[in-house]
Backbone:
């Protein structure tokens, strides 16, 4: 009879093979549909209806595969549900309906897993810590699930439990997720570098498995925004191993505001999300690294509830933060100044020669929020920005991304994507001036 450890190892290998098989089928199916679409187009038979049907089939398959698996594949779905804004409206509606649901539609594990992890990490008498505990998960995420409970002192709490095999499944998903994202973005949004985004995403996910690190970040972030009129960060109640207990907060999920919020709600949520992007580092030394809609709640009192501190960008004291770099690049007054700033920030390596005018065009549209007192984010802004990047691709390829900016750039990109989903009108420029060192910016237009 096999030893339990050996049996578990064999089970994990079988699950990994099954996951790889299901994931690998996605790019093959996408490639097939793309080929069919190309053939129909050549013969003049690719109608709007047939193209939309191809997208619907692709979205259905992605939802079925990604929604049934955990690990990095769920994060792929979360990122994709933000960037669907770049698609044409008729197509984006398909992916919005299917893929945005990935943020809340992972299949939770049952009571057996809950008892196993809680007993292993909180002890056999873990029930005594709670006045009540709901064994049915209220939400399932990429690496764990959340249960509603009442702490022994009567406080409502959220209990985040990491899946026992999350680490092994995450590492096993890495290559397949990168492959899927590369193929999928090539099919629907070729302007995006799906491979680079997925590789960076999977690397950062490893940090999210460390709940002790997350609890420390959440505690520090809460201290930086304690008793704030604009933000609510729940208190960490207990952390041990794969279990993180925090205060429960209610409120309207940002995804619901995106779906049917009124103008006041959209602009309020957009203002606070913008403020969080700029104020995080000055107030806490950190920037929220995963600002997708599932991590925010719009409270009844107008505050923004902030959740999930596993993927934080930690700034190096005394150095320019990511948002400061973003503003400096986009506020350059001419091509020569832009080249100088990019070299100073290590986006242009010594000796690399570029066309300064073409470089200015590369950043012209994306920098519009930095130059206007009140800016309306929407899908058109994001699509035009990506289109401009594509048109300026030759000069863009001369830029190098500093290693410390990859994680931050994804956070900025996702945050701006959410602002576009909200279609929020916000004083983006004024928030920058409020929180950043304006002496580092170009003169004239920022005072």
Residues:
């Amino acid at each position: 009879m096999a030893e339990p450890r050996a049996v578990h190892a064999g089970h994990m290998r079988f699950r990994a093979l099954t996951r790889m098989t299901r994931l690998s089928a996605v790019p093959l199916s996408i490639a097939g549909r793309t080929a069919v679409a190309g053939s129909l187009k050549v013969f003049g038979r690719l109608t709007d209806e047939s193209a939309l049907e191809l997208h619907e089939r692709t979205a259905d398959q992605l939802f079925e595969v990604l929604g049934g698996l955990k690990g990095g594949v769920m994060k792929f779905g979360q990122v994709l549900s933000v960037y669907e804004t770049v698609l044409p409206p008729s197509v984006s509606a398909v992916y919005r309906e299917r893929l945005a649901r990935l943020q809340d539609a992972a299949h939770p594990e049952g009571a057996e897993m809950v008892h196993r992890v809680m007993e292993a990490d909180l002890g056999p008498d873990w029930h005594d810590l709670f006045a009540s505990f709901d064994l049915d998960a209220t939400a399932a995420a990429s690496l764990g699930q959340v249960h509603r409970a009442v702490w022994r002192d009567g406080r409502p709490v959220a209990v985040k439990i990491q899946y026992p095999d999350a680490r092994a499944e995450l590492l096993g998903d890495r290559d397949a997720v990168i492959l899927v994202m590369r193929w999928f973005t090539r099919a629907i949004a070729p302007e995006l570098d799906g491979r680079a985004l997925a590789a960076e995403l999977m690397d950062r996910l490893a940090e999210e498995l460390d709940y002790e690190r997350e609890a420390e970040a959440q505690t520090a972030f809460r201290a930086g925004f304690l008793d704030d009129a604009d933000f609510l960060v729940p208190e960490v109640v207990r952390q041990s191993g794969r279990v993180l207990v925090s205060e429960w907060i209610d409120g309207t999920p940002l995804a619901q505001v995106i779906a049917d919020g009124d103008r006041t709600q959209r602009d309020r949520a957009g203002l606070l999300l913008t403020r969080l992007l700029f104020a995080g580092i000055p107030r806490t030394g950190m920037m929220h690294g995963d600002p997708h809609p599932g991590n925010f709640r719009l409270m009844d009192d107008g505050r923004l509830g902030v959740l999930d501190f596993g993927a934080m960008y930690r700034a190096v004291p005394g150095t320019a933060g990511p948002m400061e770099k973003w503003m400096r690049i986009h506020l350059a007054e001419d091509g020569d100044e832009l080249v100088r700033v990019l070299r100073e920030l290590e986006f242009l390596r010594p000796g690399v020669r570029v066309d300064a005018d073409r470089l200015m065009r590369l950043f012209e549209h994306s920098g519009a929020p930095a130059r206007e007192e009140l800016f309306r984010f929407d899908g058109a802004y994001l699509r035009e920005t990506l289109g401009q990047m594509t048109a300026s691709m030759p000069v863009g390829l001369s830029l190098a991304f500093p290693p410390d900016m990859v994680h931050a750039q994804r956070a900025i990109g996702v945050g701006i994507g959410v602002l576009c989903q909200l279609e929020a009108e916000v004083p983006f420029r004024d928030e920058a001036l409020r929180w950043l060192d304006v002496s580092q910016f170009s003169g004239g237009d920022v005072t």
